[in-house]
């Protein structure tokens, strides 16, 4: 199947299963208007994160890499009353857009956006989290995964985004951000602390995928 068909199938199911959503659409528009990079999850993947968080009745969610809070909003909407989501963002310009999007969604009391480098903030967080979404600088994936494990309860789910990258993950000489994925895959090999798999995805944003792990 070619990319044009993947994109068309994505659009078909997005229209069928994800009706127009003024809050999420406005979040993406604000991100575009502020010239932020279009590296948010695709709508069907945002919905997938939302459904996974709901399936496991997550009450405490951690996200590493906020951008404009698009995935954050999908995840926060999965929370029951009293739930919380902590999201970490290093770029102040991204955080400004994210805060406005969170406020427009009426989720300021649910979402705790912390600004700064994730590795500086993570040691000060209090868990346990039920669900962790790792989607920041890929070079630090192993460190983020270790923190996710420290801060999670048994049975928690950890998702790491962008692990396929058009197949570049196979290349031992690939750029550093791909090496970050490869180091994580090697770290997880035989790691009895988690049970993990990788799921490849195709769609409007190309061929990519995520690692999905459950904490033992
Ligand atoms: N999860 C977002 C979504 O799908 O809507 C997309 C996140 S984007 C792929 C990655 C984000 O991580 C960027 O906003 C970037 O500024 C942020 N980031 C990069 N390095 C970081 C770090 N060391 N600590 C925290 N955030 C970081």
TrEMBL record:
Keyword annotations from UniProtKB, A to Z: Methyltransferase, S-adenosyl-L-methionine, Transferase
The enzyme's E.C. designation: 2.1.1.-
CDD domains referenced in this protein's UniProt entry, alphabetically: AdoMet_MTases (cd02440)
SUPFAM superfamilies named in the record: S-adenosyl-L-methionine-dependent methyltransferases
One GO BP annotation of this record: methylation
PANTHER family: CAFFEOYL-COA O-METHYLTRANSFERASE 3-RELATED (PTHR10509:SF14), O-METHYLTRANSFERASE-RELATED (PTHR10509)
Protein name listed in UniProt: O-methyltransferase
Organism: Magnetospirillum gryphiswaldense
């Amino acid at each position: 199947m070619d990319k044009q068909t993947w994109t068309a199938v994505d659009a078909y199911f997005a229209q069928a299963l994800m009706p127009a959503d003024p809050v999420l659409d406005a979040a993406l528009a604000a991100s575009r208007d502020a010239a932020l990079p279009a590296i948010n999850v695709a709508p069907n993947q945002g919905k997938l994160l939302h459904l996974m968080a709901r399936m496991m009745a997550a009450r405490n969610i951690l996200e590493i890499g906020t951008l404009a809070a698009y995935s954050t909003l999908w995840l926060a909407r999965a929370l029951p009353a009293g739930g919380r989501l902590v999201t970490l963002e290093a770029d102040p310009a991204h955080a400004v857009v994210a805060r406005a999007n969170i406020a427009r969604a009426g989720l300021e009391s649910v979402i705790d956006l912390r600004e700064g480098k994730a590795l500086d903030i993570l040691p000060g967080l209090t868990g346990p989290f039920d669900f962790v979404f790792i989607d920041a600088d890929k070079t630090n994936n192993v460190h983020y995964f270790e923190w996710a494990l420290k801060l999670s309860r048994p049975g928690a789910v950890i998702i790491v985004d962008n692990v396929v990258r058009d197949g570049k993950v196979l290349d031992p000489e690939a750029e550093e951000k791909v090496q970050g994925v490869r180091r994580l895959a090697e770290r997880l090999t035989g790691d009895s602390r988690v049970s993990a798999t990788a799921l490849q995805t195709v769609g409007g944003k190309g061929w990519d995928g995520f690692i999905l792990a459950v904490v033992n």
